[in-house]
Write a structure and sequence with these properties.
Length: 83
């Protein structure tokens, strides 16, 4: 295989991984917003006699923590690539 073709494939794979990490970060940030709306009672309705607010806050905490983790991974990869 030609060295330039191999470098191009590696660059395309690296770009795809970076985009995937950013998409997951945005996805979990959006889930965090939805969870916050559920937690505030703006979205969703009670199921039987049970409120869903606690589930919304749980979703918010988990989703935001995963979004922050994916952004941390992305910034580490970005800075490691530059050094």
């Amino acid at each position: 295989m030609h060295p330039l073709k191999s470098a191009r494939v590696d660059l395309a794979h690296l770009f795809a991984m970076e985009v995937a990490v950013l998409i997951f970060a945005l996805l979990f940030a959006a889930l965090g917003i939805v969870g916050a709306l559920v937690g505030l009672g703006e979205l969703g309705h009670p199921v039987g006699a049970h409120g869903v607010q606690s589930y919304g806050w749980g979703l918010t905490v988990n989703a935001i923590s995963l979004a922050v983790y994916f952004l941390f991974v992305w910034t580490r990869r970005y800075h490691d690539r530059r050094t």
